[in-house]
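Hey Z.,

So I finally got round to the adenosine-5'-diphosphate thing we talked about over coffee. Here's the setup:
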Amino acid sequence: MTTLRTWFESNRSSLKTRWLKAMGRTPSAGLGCDWPGLFEIMEAGIGCDAAIPTGVAAAVRAWVIAELSVRQGSPSDALAAIFLLRTTFTDLFREVEEGSVVTGWPAHVAAYLDRMAILVAETLVDTAEQTVTDRLTETLKLERDQLEALYTITREISASLDLTLVMDRTLRIVSKAVGASHGSIMLMDQEKGVLVLRAVLGRDRMLPVEGEPTRFKLGKGLAGWVYEHRQALLIEDVTKDSRWMKSKRGNDRTRSLIIAPLIVDLDNYGVMTISEEQPGFFTEEHLRLVDTAAGQVARAISNAQLYSYVSQTAQKLGESLRREQDEASKSQAILQSIADGVVVTDAHGRIILVNSAAERILGTRWRSMLGQDVRNVFAILERGEREEMLKAMEALAANPAAYRDSPTIIQSKLAMEQTTVSAHMAPVFTSGGQFVGIVSIFRDITREVQADIAKTEFVSTVSHELRTPLTSIKGYTDLLMAGAVGPLMEDQARFVNIIHNNANRLTALINDLLDISRIESGRVKLAFRPLQIRDVVQNVVESQRAQFEAKGLVLEVELPEDLPLVQGDPERLAQVMDNLVSNACRYTPEGKVTITVSQMQGALRMDVSDTGIGIPAADQSKIWDRFFRADHPLVEEVGGTGLGLSIVKMFVEMHGGRIWMDSEIGKGSTFTFILPTMEAQGSVIPKPESEEIEAVSWVGAGRKTVLVVEDEPDIVALLRYQLEAHGYRVITAMLGDEALYKANAERPDMITLDILLPDRDGFDVLRELKGNPCTAEIPVLILSIVQDEESGFRLGAVDYLTKPIEERQLIESIRAILDHKSRVLIAEDNPETASLLSQMLEHYGFLTMVAVDGYETLATARREKPGLILLDLRMPGMDGYEALVRLKQDAETRDIPIIAMSAHAADYRSEREKLLSLGAVEFLSKPFTVEQLVVELERVMGGSHG
Ligand code: ADP
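And the result:
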C-alpha cells in the first residue's frame, strides 16, 4: 500500500527540482542559502505526523541560525522557502494523483509545513533579536520588524478561521511593519466579476458586512491588473501610471502603492493593497513582505473556505448519519418489542435478522443461525411442515415478482413439538423493484388452536345436553296438541302451539350448531354413493310444497330426464337443497321460486331462483358467515339462525363442488351450486354387491382417474386409449383454465400436463395447481416436448416425460405415481388380524398384500415396493425388530415408510422411541381404531393415497 512516506520517496527528486526551480524564480535567488539542507531536514518529518518531531525541530532551528549567522542569508527568503515548498508540494500532489488515493495527504502535509513555517519564523525572530544586538544595523532592525510581522500573521492565520478578523489583523500588522497608514483587501466576487472591498485601513467609514463593491474588474485599474496578472506591483507614483484609475470623488491622495495578489496554489482570491500619500515611499523589501503576507491571507481564505465546506459537509453527514441511526435503532426497538417473531433472509436465503420473539417462538436454536442458510434452520422442524415452508419459500424466491403486489403472502401453519405457529412470508423489494429477501413472521397460535378445539368440543357437548330436555318438551307438546290428555281450550291450544314452534326452532338451531361443530372437528364423514340428483330434488320439492302453497308462491322445477350420476351423500345433498329452497320460500313475499337442474361439462348445475327481497350488495359476501342475517324487516319476521348457508357451503365443498349467488335487491336472488358428475361413460354403475360395499368411501374405491391436459386431439385420443387399456378412467382438458377448473371440480387422482397450451403456459398451470390447497396434492406428470425438467420438478411435478412418449414408459410412470403410493404391505402372522386389517384398508381404498413373517416381508418389500409397510413386531422366525432394521439397511427398501404395531407394549413411550430411532415412522399399539390407522396412513403416505 502506498503510504505518504513511500509516495514522498518516489516523488522526491521531482519535488526537489521543482522547489529549487521555484526558489530560483524568487528575487533573492542564489543568496547562498543551503536549500537542499533544509529539504533534507524537512523531509525527515514528512509522514510522521502533522506535529514536527523534536529531532526535526532542533535541526530546523540549527539550520535557521546557520543560515542567518554563517551564510548571512535573508530571513524573509528562509520563510518564503517554506511557503514555496508547501505550494510545490500541493501542486505536485494534484498533478500526480489527481485526487485519487491521497485525498487526506495534501491537507496533512500542508498542516505539517504550516507548523514548519511557524517554527522557522519563531527561530528567525529569536535569532534576529540576537543578531540585532550584535550587528545593530538599520536593515536588520527593519528586517526583524518585518519578520515579526510575518510571524504574527502566520500564527494568527493558523489560529483563526474567522476571515474578517484575519484580514483586518493582517492589514494592520503589514501596514505597521512597512510604516504605511492605508491599506485594503479586495476579494473577487466571481458572480458579478468585480473586486469587493472586504477590509480597509485608514478610512473613517465602516464597511458593510458583505463588503463594498469597487469599480475594479478583471484588468481594470491597478488592482484589476494585479488580479489578472497574478503578480505583485510596487508603484513609486500612481499618478504616473496609466493603469491608475483616479477616485471619482477626487479626494484620493494616494501616491505610493503596493498591490499583491491573494494567490494560493491555483486559486486567485483578490488583492491586498498598501498605500502612502508620499511618492517613492516603499522599497523592494516592503514589496516582498506584502507579497508574502498576501500569500498568507490567501491561504487563510482558502482554509476558511475549505473549513466551512468541510464543516458543512460533516454536519450534513453527521445529521443524516444520526437520522439513519435513529431510524435504525427505532426499527430495531420496534422489531425487538413486537410479540410476533420476525426472521429476515437475504436474497440468497441467508438469515440476516432474528428478533427475540422469533427465538422464543421457534426455540433458542435460532440465535446461532444468523448468516446461515434458512434451509438448515427449517431442517429442525418436523418433516412435513419443513417441506411446506421450504416449498413456499422456494416458490417465493424463484418468482418474487409474482408475490409483489399481493399483500397476502404465503401463509402456513406449523405444528411444532408443543406449539402451533402460524407463518406468513412476504418478499421484500427496494423502491427500485429489486428483490432483496424474505420477511417471515411467526405467531404462536397454540392458544387460539386449543381454544378453537375447546370451543368446538364445548358446543358439541352443550348441543347434546340440550337435546335431551328438548326431546321431552317437543314430545309432550306433541302429545298435548294431539289431544292425548283431552281436548285443549282455545288459549291453551295457542300457547302449546307457540311452545311447539319455539321448540322446533331451538331444535333446528341446535342441529345446525351440532352440524357445524362436527364438520369442523372432522367428525362428519359423508356416506358417498352414486346417486341421481333428480331423486334428491324431487324429495325436497315434495316436502316443501305445502309451505309454498301456504304462502301462495309458485314453485317451478326444471328437471331434465337423463342426468348423469353424481357421487354424493344423499342426506347431505338433500339438506343443501332443502336449505336453499326453504330460504327462497321464506324470503320471497310473492312471486315464484324456480329450481333448475342442468348439465355442464363434467358437472351438474343447480339453480334456485326467487323473486324475493334480494340481498344488498354489501351483504352478499357476508351471507356465508355464521350467524349473519341481513338487516331487513322480513328477515327479522321469519326468524332463523343465520347458520344454514354456512353449513350448505361446507357440504357443497365437501362434495368437491362450488356454490355462489347472485342477487338484486327487491328483484330476487339466485343461489347456484355445481357438483362434479361421475364419468360420463361410466354412468352404468354396477349394483353394489352388499350393503357394506355400498358404504365404501368413494375415495380410491373406483378406478383411478387421470386428467389429461393436452390440446392436440390426436394425442388426447392416443393417451385415452393407452390409459383406458390399463384400467384408468380418463377425463380431458384442452386449455389451462379448463384444467384448473376440472382439477378442482373432479379431483382426479393424477394429472398429465402438456406445457404448450393454447391459453396459458403449462408451468403456470402447474404453479397454480400446487398453490391451491384443493389441488396441491394431486400428482402431476408432465408430458411435453419442452425439455425443462428442472422447472417442472421445482414447481412440484412428480415426473417429467418428453414427447414422443413410449407407452411402456408412460404407464410405468403412472403406476409408480398412483399404485405404489396406495399399496400397503401388511406384515402380520395372525391370519385373522391380517385379514381384518386388509379389509379395513381396502375399505378406505388401499391395495393390500400380506406377508406372514420377517423373511417374506423383506422379499415382498423388495419385489413390490409398497407405499408403506404395516409391521407387526411379534412374528415367528425373524421378528419385527430385526425386519425393521434389515428393511432400513437395504437400499431398495430403505425409503418405504414403516408403521410398527404391537399388542404387547409394556411401556408405550419408550417402545415408540426405540422404534422411531430404528427408522419406523410411527408406532401403533393394538387395539387401535380404524380411524387412527387411516389417519396415520394418510399422514405417512402424504394425504392422497389414490
Ligand atoms: P337464516 O335463513 O336462518 O337466517 P341462512 O344462513 O340460511 O340463515 O341465511 C343467512 C341470511 O342470508 C338470511 O338471514 C338472509 O338475510 C339472507 N338470505 C338467504 N337466502 C336468501 C334469499 N333467497 N333471499 C334473500 N335473502 C336471503
